[in-house]
C-alpha cells in the first residue's frame, strides 16, 4: 500500500485569506480554466489552479514559499473567466498579502498595519516622534523645532530643522531596509527549498552570478512594464503603475541630490524653481498624484475585483504623499506660511510612514515580486 500523506490544514490561514479578499476560494471546483487562460502561467506546473487547491486545504507553508504566487500581477483574466466565481486572481493577491506579513518582523506591527482600526495610532507615531524628540532636543538647547517660526522668507526648515528630519528619517529608512533584508533572506531560502522539492530546479545552491544576471533582465522587464501588456482585463493599470513607480524613482533621486547639496556642498534650500533637480521633483510629484488618482479610479471601476484594506492603504498613502508634497510647495510659493507648515508636517508623517511601514504593506511587493521574478528567471521558469 502506498504511504499515506497527512495534510494538516491551517484553518486560520484559510480565514485570513478570506479576510484579505480571497473569500470566494471555496467555490473552486478545480476545472483549471484559470491556469489555461492566464497569459503568463508556464506549461510546467501552471498556476493558479494548484494554488487554489493548496489554499482551500490551508497549506500555508507551501503557499508562502510558492514564488508562482508572485509571478501573477493580478490582471484579473482568470477571475473574469472562472465559471464558479472563485476569483483566483484575488485569492493570489490575498496570499501575497499574507506572505508579506509572514516574512516581516515584528509580527505585532504586521498585524497593526493590516488592521484599519489601528491607522490613527500608526499615523500618530511619527507625529509623537517628531514633536517629542524636537522638544527633548530643545531642552538641551537645540532649536530644531520651532512652532512660531519667523525668517526673511517662508521656508519649512525654519519650522522643523533638516537636522531633525534627517536624524529621524535616515535610521527609519535603514531600519526598513533591515526588515526587508531579514524577510528576503527567509523568503529566498524558502522559495529555493520549495522549488527543489517541486522539481522546478535541481541546483542545490543558488549561484550569486546567475542571480545578478537574472536581476538585470528582470529590472528591464519591470521598467518596460511588458507583463501588463499581456493582460486583457486590466491592461489600463499599466499607466497608473508606471506613473507611480517612476515618480518614486524620480523623488528618490531628487531627495538624494538635495541631501548631497545640503550636507556635502553646503548649499541651503529653498532651491530655485529653475533648478533642474527641482523640475524633476515637481514633475515626479505631479505624476505621483495623477498615478494615485488613476489607481483609485481603476479600483473603483473594477466592480468584479475584490479590493481590501491592503489595496486602499497603499493608494491612500501614495495620494497623501503626492498631495501634501505638492501642497507644501504651492502654499509656500503663495506665501501661506502657517498652512504650508501644517501641510509640510503632514507630509513628513506620510514619508515616515512610507519608510517604516513599507515592509509590512502592499508596497513590499516591489521587493518580494522582484525577488520572485529574479528567481523565476534564474531557474528559467518561462
Ligand atoms: S478557480 Fe475557477 S477557473 Fe480556476 S480551477 Fe477553480 S473553478 Fe476552475
Ligand atoms: S490574475 Fe492574471 S496573472 Fe494572475 S493568475 Fe490570474 S490570469 Fe494569471
Number of distinct helices: 16
**Helix-strand pattern:** HHHHHHHHHHHHHHHH
Mean pLDDT equals: 90
Q: Which geometry do the CA atoms define?
A: elongated
Radius of gyration (Å)? 23 Å
- Domain tally: 2
Helix content: 55-70%
Unreliable spans: none
Strand residue content: under 5%
Bound molecules: iron/sulfur cluster
User: How far apart, in Å, are the first and last alpha carbons?
Assistant: 37 Å
> Strand pairing plus helix content: what structural class?
mainly alpha
What about the largest sheet?
Answer: none
Structure commentary:
This protein is an all-alpha fold. It folds into 2 domains: 11-103, Alpha-helical ferredoxin (Fumarate Reductase Iron-sulfur Protein, Chain B, domain 2); 107-378, no CATH class. The protein contains 16 helices and no strands. It has helices spanning 11-22, 33-37, 49-56, 60-64, 68-71, 77-81, 88-103, 107-113, 119-139, 162-198, 208-224, 237-263, 276-301, 309-333, 337-357, 365-378. It starts with 10 loop residues before the first helix and ends with a helix. The mean pLDDT is 90. Bound molecules: iron/sulfur cluster (SF4) (2 copies).
Amino acid at each position: 500500500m502506498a504511504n499515506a500523506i497527512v495534510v494538516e490544514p491551517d484553518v486560520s490561514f484559510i480565514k485570513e485569506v478570506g479576510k484579505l479578499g480571497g473569500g470566494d476560494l471555496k467555490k473552486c471546483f478545480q476545472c483549471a480554466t484559470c491556469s489555461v487562460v492566464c497569459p503568463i502561467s508556464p506549461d510546467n506546473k501552471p498556476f493558479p489552479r494548484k494554488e487554489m487547491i493548496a489554499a482551500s486545504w490551508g497549506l500555508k507553508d507551501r503557499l508562502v514559499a510558492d514564488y508562482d504566487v508572485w509571478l501573477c500581477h493580478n490582471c484579473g483574466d482568470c477571475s473574469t473567466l472562472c465559471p464558479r466565481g472563485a476569483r483566483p486572481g484575488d485569492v493570489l493577491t490575498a496570499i501575497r498579502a499574507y506572505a508579506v506579513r509572514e516574512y516581516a518582523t515584528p509580527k505585532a506591527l504586521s498585524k497593526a498595519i493590516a488592521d484599519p482600526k489601528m491607522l490613527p495610532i500608526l499615523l500618530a507615531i511619527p507625529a509623537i516622534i517628531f514633536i517629542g524628540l524636537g522638544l527633548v532636543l530643545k531642552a538641551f538647547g537645540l532649536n530644531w523645532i520651532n512652532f512660531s517660526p519667523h525668517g526673511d522668507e517662508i521656508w519649512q526648515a525654519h519650522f522643523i530643522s533638516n537636522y531633525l528630519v534627517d536624524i529621524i528619517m535616515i535610521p527609519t529608512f535603514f531600519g526598513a531596509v533591515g526588515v526587508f533584508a531579514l524577510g528576503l533572506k527567509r523568503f529566498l531560502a524558502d522559495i529555493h527549498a520549495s522549488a527543489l522539492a517541486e522539481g522546478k530546479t535541481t541546483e542545490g545552491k543558488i549561484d550569486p552570478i546567475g542571480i545578478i544576471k537574472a536581476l538585470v533582465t528582470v529590472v528591464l522587464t519591470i521598467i518596460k512594464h511588458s507583463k501588463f501588456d499581456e493582460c486583457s482585463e486590466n491592461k489600463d493599470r499599466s499607466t497608473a503603475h508606471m506613473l507611480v513607480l517612476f515618480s518614486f524613482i524620480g523623488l528618490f533621486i531628487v531627495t538624494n541630490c538635495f541631501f548631497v547639496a545640503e550636507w556635502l556642498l553646503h548649499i541651503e534650500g529653498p532651491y530655485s524653481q529653475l533648478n533642474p533637480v527641482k523640475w524633476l521633483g515637481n514633475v515626479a510629484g505631479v505624476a505621483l498624484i495623477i498615478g494615485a488618482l488613476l489607481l483609485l479610479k481603476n479600483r473603483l471601476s473594477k466592480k468584479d475585483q475584490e479590493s481590501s484594506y491592503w489595496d486602499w492603504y497603499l493608494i491612500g498613502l501614495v495620494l497623501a504623499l503626492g498631495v501634501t508634497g505638492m501642497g507644501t510647495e504651492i502654499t509656500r510659493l503663495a506665501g501661506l506660511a502657517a498652512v504650508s507648515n501644517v501641510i509640510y508636517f503632514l507630509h513628513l508623517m506620510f514619508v515616515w510612514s512610507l519608510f517604516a511601514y513599507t515592509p509590512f504593506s502592499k508596497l513590499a511587493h516591489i521587493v518580494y515580486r522582484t525577488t520572485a521574478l529574479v528567481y523565476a528567471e534564474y531557474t528559467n521558469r518561462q
